[in-house]
Amino acid sequence: MPSNVFDLSGKTALCTGGTRGIGQAMALALAEAGADIILVQRDAHNIETHDAIVALGRQCIIFVADLASAGSVSTIIPSLTTSSTLPNNAIHILLNAAGIQRRHPSHEFPEHDWNEVLQTNLSTPFMLCRDIGNYWLTASPPMRGGRIINIASLLSFQGGLTVPAYAASKGGVLQMTKALSNEWAGHGIGVNCIAPGYVATAMNEGLMRDETRAKQILDRIPVGRWGNPEDFKGPVVFLACGKASGYVSGECLVVDGGWMGR
């Protein structure tokens, strides 16, 4: 296999959710593979990921937006693609890694939490996919080779407990990924998603503190451990590199230590 099949030099990746956990590891992986990075963050105060990317010799800018606000999200792609400071003068990769979780018994689930989860986890990724797709397809000439990576979940396939909004949002991400692939794969745009299994991140702290539930989860994972953010570096680079995954579109890469095989 050619040594440059996973080379992202000269590419720019727009990443949400890059300040912590899986999203941070994936943003760093894209930078390690050679890409320059745009981090969409709630504010510009958290510079940990930014500084780590710059230390790799990559360009990195922070774009401030509220991913729970449709109005704020609608400004992201238009603002960036008309900016004179856009790295490499283009966006080649979209990584939708931001997500939130809210847990309540379903019969008591607050409408506000439902709306916030669906906006952040599903509507925002759709808007960014739509806007980046429009940017690529209406360019003159149209830009080919764009790659979109959405983040699904085991709850794209399973219902879970006390997380109806999260399960609905992640089921939607999986189907949205397939739908966009159907329209855009013929235009040279790859649209895929990654479904993480149980990963030791802040989002799962409650589960990890519950000794009984944590043991039940661990006992079902064939690999014998919870995942960690570094487990997602290889998968995201694979899907971001057209040379490596050019014939892959509309797929969900499950990274779960074997959970779904049980």
Number of strands: 7
Query: How much is the average pLDDT?
Result: 96
Terminal Cα separation, in Å? 33 Å
Structural class, from helix and strand content? Answer: alpha/beta
Q: What percentage of the residues does DSSP assign to strands (E)?
A: 5-15%
Would you list the SSEs in sequence order as H and E?
EHEHEHHEHEHEHHHHE
Work out the radius of gyration. 18 Å
Proportion in helices: 40-55%
- Low-pLDDT sequence parts: none
The 3D shape can be described as globular
- Sheet of most strands: 7 strands, parallel
List descriptors.
7 strands, 10 helices, 262 residues, alpha/beta
Concise structural overview:
Belongs to the short-chain dehydrogenases/reductases (SDR) family. With 262 residues, this protein is an alpha/beta fold.
What order do the helices and strands come in, and which of them pair?
Blueprint: E1 12-16, H1 21-32, E2 36-41, H2 48-55, E3 60-64, H3 70-73, H4 76-81, E4 93-96, H5 111-137, E5 147-151, H6 164-184, E6 190-196, H7 205-209, H8 211-220, H9 233-240, H10 242-245, E7 252-255
Parallel strand pairs: 1-2, 1-4, 2-3, 4-5, 5-6, 6-7
Helix pairs in contact: 1-9, 5-6
General description of the model:
It holds the Pfam family adh_short. Belongs to the short-chain dehydrogenases/reductases (SDR) family. This is 2-deoxy-D-gluconate 3-dehydrogenase. InterPro entries: NAD(P)-bd_dom_sf, Sc_DH/Rdtase_CS, SDR_fam. It is a single chain. This protein has helices at residues 21-32, 48-55, 70-73, 76-81, 111-137, 164-184, 205-209, 211-220, 233-240, 242-245, and strands at residues 12-16, 36-41, 60-64, 93-96, 147-151, 190-196, 252-255. Strand 5, helix 6 and strand 6 (190-196) form a beta-alpha-beta unit. It is of the alpha/beta class and 262 residues long. Helix 1 (21-32) packs across helix 9.
